[in-house]
Amino acid sequence: MSEPRGAGRAGGAEDVRAVAVELATAAGGRTLSYMEVCGTHTMAIARHGLRQLLPDGVRLVSGPGCPVCVTAIGDLDRAVAYARLPEVTLATFGDLVRVPASRTTLAEERAAGADVKVVYSALDAVDLAVAVPEREVVFIGIGFETTAPTVAAALIAARDRDVRNFSILSLHKTMPAPLRALLEAGETPLDGFILPGHVSVITGPEAFSFLPAEYGVGGVVAGFEPDDVLGALLALARQKAAAIENGYVRAVHPHGNAVARQVMDEVFVPCDARWRGLGEIAGSGLALAPAFAAFDAQERFTVDPGEPLEPAGCRCGEVLRGLIDPSDCGLFGRRCTPQTPIGACMVSSEGACAAHFRFRDLV
Amino acid sequence: MSDRILIGHGSGGRLYRDLVHDVFLARFSNPELDRLEDAAELRLGGRFAGGGEGRPGGDPGAGAGSSRPRLAFTTDSHVVRPLRYPGGDIGRLAVAGTVNDLATAAARPLALAAAFIIEEGLPLAELEWFTDSMAATAREAGVDIVTGDTKVVERGLADGLYITTTGVGEVIVEHEVSARAARCGDVLLLSGSVGDHSAAVLAARGEFSLQIDVRSDCAPLWSLTEAALSAGGEAVRFLRDATRGGLTTVLCELAESSDLGIAVEEEAIPVTPPVRAVCELLGYDPLTLANEGKMVLAVGPERADEVLAALRAHPLGRQAARIGELVTDHPRRVALRTAFGTRRVLDMPVGELLPRIC
Fold first, then answer.
1. CA of residue A313 relative to chain centroid, distance
2. Which structural domain, as residue segments, surrounds residue B128?
3. Which residues 193-232 in chain A show a CB within 8 A of chain B?
4. Shortest Cα distance from B116 to chain A (angstroms)?
5. What is the arithmetic mean of pLDDT over A341-353?
6. Which positions in chain B touch A3 (Cβ < 8 Å)?
7. Which of A50, A111, A349 sits opposite B4 (nearest CB)?
8. Which residues from chain A sit within 8 angstroms of residue B352, using beta carbons?
9. By three-state DSSP, how is residue A86 classified?
10. Are residues B197 and B335 in the same domain?
11. Tell me, what's the pLDDT at B66?
12. Which of B319, B317, B343, B339 has its CA nearest to residue B329?
């Protein structure tokens, strides 16, 4: 049995504080806004209270990198409509179960009798389909380049095993596109990006090279430890000219993971996708390639999800665009809490609102 | 709030608390239940015992300090999937869970009752295996199972085996041990590492293909608690085993019930490397994971060192640690100081634990 150590990262605490001091020097009193794109970074920043270590003038804003948060409400309504079909077992990652769709949640549908099963991978959903041949198993595919290859692998397995009662609703999205959309919109003044570590493992840092080339904005690929995050901020503050740097060399290869991309390309084709808060972004989604059309839930089932209704007063869209901090929303911490979430960003553990609420300082 | 029971209502966090308040307390309210301790106190001849002064209808002679024996009374239903996991099983859990609830009232276990709901088709050998485990755990805790009940339901109406245990214990101290008795300046002690039980059960379910070496901490804690009470006497003011909802839930409940603030040091809270790895992988917070063999104590500062030494001298408390204290700042709130000197609030977890997606 291994010896426990403190719940914090005792080994790195001195380093982290030292980086914070260097960051203050590098920032030199400038006003700098950096966006952490990935929800896992949002969580890490909030959990370790890293905002409290930032020098005056340096601001961190959360971006559109929480897969649950950016799922459009109309797409959630479609998932609910599938769950209500008597022959369907809906298989989903757990986070989606509590997200409010227009009129209900999957958790409420489950309590009312719908067959909703939480799975931990797409392959589990394929196994579930094999185990219940009399049911139609529909898997809700969400997530970015991190998740899509595993879903693609599961679909290949389903094809090879001739599993005919399995299909997916592909709500997958790809990463660089929303950053371009944010910069094109120009609403959010940004001096740089903390780029998503897990996504970059697949895409490689090169996928983000358009940021300095076309918009003059730099980015640093970062891991998820506190010193990774502060180190990325320090590297950004020290950039003389905008560039993409890899601060996560222990996991991210310069060219990413070509095998994973190949699997994705076999199963998916790019499509336009709706993002909560950002609207429709051309080429930012993944639809099933024609060879896998038989596994497309949208081909297999006809449903009427109804008109999407955005929750009144919810400012998730502005949070996802980095325009406001979660606490600027009138619902935050009052009507909208992790227990009674109104917007998706309060549900997912990676959501900016949930992270800000759960890990807030004493006020 | 949903108009149906959701899985999250059973997870020991905020949804569960609201259910208890809005449904059960609203209908069953009485002074003993309203204390919301893990065990109720009863007294032969008087109705309620715990800290009874000034209670309408209470027995004025029945408060702490009177010479009549005080009984602790508690019940707990056990449902766990899978029924067996490294370090424990539903039988051991059923005995230890109730013994530990009695221990939080400073009560030596006197007798247990066990009720079984069995799904048609359960192999008899399985039932014998789990009852062997119960018998062994009861011997370890020094208590007998003196009565019971058995029901069999049709296949599909239960998940193998559910066990409910009810326990009676004798309170061995004169003073009140409860969240309300905690005072500003009291030191918070934790009897060992957190999250091991949840991590072991998660790994045993096989859903994450986790290859980790972690065992549930499931154990009856009476002898450990008795050692702490011997060392600390009246300075031991609060005892609570950190089960569902984890350490965070215990701290939040203590802050609310005591009307005091709590300051804890993240670095002081023991977490084993495999549990930390599971948390990193799945996005869980070790402080909200369930334990089945960890006691949280609030002890007057004058005896904290002695109690900590007594815990560490016990086989189940070797990694006991001093994790924080009760303060007058930020009443009813729990503040965690991180390794980096930053600070954040600890909130009661909301509902079921869900792994992160990416």
1. 23
2. 35-53+67-171
3. 198-199, 226
4. 26
5. 88
6. 272
7. A111
8. 94
9. coil
10. yes
11. 55
12. B343
Q: Are B339 and A9 an interchain contact pair (Cβ–Cβ within 8 Å)?
A: yes
Tokens coding A306: 């109804």
**Average pLDDT, integer, range A257-272:** 96
Same-domain check for residues B131 and B239: no
**Chain B residues with CB-CB distance to A5 below 8 A:** 270-271, 273
Q: To the nearest whole angstrom, how far is the Cα of A241 from the nearest Cα of chain B?
A: 31
Q: How far is CA A76 from CA A92, A171, A284, B87, in A?
A: 11, 10, 18, 40
Check A98 against B8: CB less than 8 A apart.
Answer: yes
Number of domains in chain B: 2
Q: Does residue A48 sit at the B interface (CB-CB below 8 Å)?
A: yes
B270 and A93 within 8 Å at the Cβ level: the answer is no
- Asked if residue B244 belongs to a domain, the reply is yes
Contact criterion met (CB below 8 Å) for A338 and A347: yes
Q: CB distance from B328 to chain A under 8 Å?
A: no
At which of B150, B171, B192 does a domain end? B171
Q: Nearest CA to CA, how far is B105 from chain A (Å)?
A: 28
Phi, psi of B254 (to 5 degrees): -65, -40
Is residue A92 within a helix (H) or strand (E), and if so which, with residue range? Answer: strand A88-92
Write the pLDDT tens digit of every residue in A163-219.
999 999 999 999 999 999 999 999 988 999 999 999 999 999 999 999 999 999 999
pLDDT digits (tens, 9 = 90+) for B267-307: 999 999 999 888 877 778 899 999 999 999 999 999 999 99
* Nearest CA distance, A240 vs chain B (angstrom): 29
| A3: pLDDT strictly greater than 70 | no
Please report the ipTM that was assigned to this predicted complex: 0.73
| Per-domain residue ranges of chain A | 73-174+258-300
The answer to whether B234 and B173 are in contact (CB under 8 A) is yes
**Which of residues 113 through 172 in chain A touch B, CB cutoff 8 A?**
118-120, 124, 142-144, 146-147
Q: Are residues B303 and B249 in the same domain?
A: yes
Longest dimension (CA), chain A: 66
Q: Are B341 and B308 part of one and the same domain?
A: yes
CATH classification at residue B121: 3.30.1330.10
Give chain B's length.
Answer: 358
Instruction: Please state the length of chain A.
Output: 363
Identify whether B331 is part of a domain. yes
**CATH class of domain segment(s) A73-174+258-300:** alpha beta
